[in-house]
Amino acid sequence: MWNIDQIYSWRNNLVDKFKNIKLEIQYNGANYYGWQKQRNHISVQEVLQKKLTQLLKENIEVIGCSRTDSKVHALKYVCNFKSKTNIPCEKIKYALNPLLPDDIVVLDSIEVDEMFHSRYSCVGKTYVYKILSREVRPVFGREGIYHYKDYLCVDKMKVAAKYFIGKHDFNAFKSSGSSVKTTIRTIQSINIIKKQQEITIEVTGDGFLYNMVRIIVGTLIQVGINKIEPEYIQTILKNKDRKLAGPTAPAEGLYLKEIYFSKKDLL
Amino acid sequence: MWNIDQIYSWRNNLVDKFKNIKLEIQYNGANYYGWQKQRNHISVQEVLQKKLTQLLKENIEVIGCSRTDSKVHALKYVCNFKSKTNIPCEKIKYALNPLLPDDIVVLDSIEVDEMFHSRYSCVGKTYVYKILSREVRPVFGREGIYHYKDYLCVDKMKVAAKYFIGKHDFNAFKSSGSSVKTTIRTIQSINIIKKQQEITIEVTGDGFLYNMVRIIVGTLIQVGINKIEPEYIQTILKNKDRKLAGPTAPAEGLYLKEIYFSKKDLL
């Protein structure tokens, strides 16, 4: 299936030799309204495009692997752009990093096949959600962890997590405000680890609906405080009703951790 | 041996019933000139005393377990003070935390024996030093980690660490500007762990000279970049010459992690 970006890429290649350059970046989302460029609000995409345009002296449009919500972080985010630059691709990171603000950094820059598209080539993602589970508030990394005061039973949360695995209709785990063709998604794994006072919930899937990870986490927390039983996850999935699931967990605990471009890596 | 604090405590107890209250606190040191109260610079001790005085409506003097340097953090710091308060000691943390700034928190407050003294009763400490070992700069928790760009050979650092274990004269690992009776200290253990891009160096000892942990870390880094061989640690210790040791590693990577009040816990 041809899409507009691919047609555009093909046309550009007829006119002149464009390189397709992939960036792996990391960002602290605390000060951004997510990845996607928008009016009146600062986004990671806007900052990156502005700095690439300044560096390469071309008008650069960056394609991202995912919209991330306002304040959500990325341990690894993949994006790509077309450029006629003569700078060797692997050197772009060294030239770009000093121009970027402290909370965005390029981990890697490489030339990729012209058909590579950060969004359409992506076959899966891993998100990680961090909870500080203790009575008193945090003093370190407050913008990157969700502080939860009440006791959470991690064993019960682990039992509940198993019900999400597999191919399901996740309509109950989607915030309104996004239009998608289908609400069916496959979750490969959910790993919950407690280390001292920090609980991490790692979710891998082929795709995620709007706020899906945060609603899954919010629902697992309801299990952790004994408000719902682990088995109730089945009922929520079956009824497809957002009102049955837990609240959307806050954005500051969420990190995009890994992006998969091959089904082999995802499984 | 009686010291001035103990005599003071004894006298106070004759006059009226004072409680000896121990606090376990955690603080992010980024915005403080260390623990110790001083003129013209904000310290953790000053903030804590001011808030305790406000809460308890008595003039409170807090005794800390250790001076920590400017910008150094504490995962667990122990201090104590005398008070005639009627507030149950274990409730003080709930009353005090809302008064404290975001970067200081009380983990626990309990009444202890009147002879307990945070500094004199302390028989050992564990410090942890965090290094982000990667080419590109950090975007998360920049104020709590030391970013080191060049490759560090952790295996060599582990070999070097062993030479510090035991009772030695650590004169070469002391910054000038402090007067101590003896520069002999005992190090119980040094554990170096690499997890992805983060290296943590955990040092446990019966006491530490001024900047001792940071100079040990700075010297281990010299080993990690092959500037000195692990065996050279023996020469530095033997010569007792500060100039032979590595530079003092920056304060932002250092955390006081544990305080021991019983020799049994230390070993």
Structural overview:
The structure is a homodimer of 267-residue chains. By secondary structure, chain A is of the alpha+beta class. Chain A contains seven helices and ten strands. Chain A has helices at 4-15, 44-56, 92-96, 154-162, 212-224, 232-239, 263-266; strands spanning 19-27, 63-64, 73-83, 104-112, 124-133, 146-148, 166-169, 184-195, 198-205, 254-260. In chain A, strands 1, 2, 3, 4, 5, 6, 7, 8, 9 and 10 form a ten-stranded mixed β-sheet that branches. Chain A is globular. The mean pLDDT of chain A is 94. The A-B interface holds A 26-28, 73, 93, 97, 102-107, 136-142, 144 and B 26-28, 73, 93, 97, 102-107, 136-142, 144. Chains A, B: The active site is at residue 69.
Summarize the SSE layout with pairings.
The structure is a homodimer of 267-residue chains.
Chain A: H1 4-15, E1 19-27, H2 44-56, E2 63-64, E3 73-83, H3 92-96, E4 104-112, E5 124-133, E6 146-148, H4 154-162, E7 166-169, E8 184-195, E9 198-205, H5 212-224, H6 232-239, E10 254-260, H7 263-266
Parallel strand pairs in A: 3-10, 5-6
Antiparallel strand pairs in A: 1-3, 1-4, 2-3, 5-9, 5-10, 7-8, 8-9
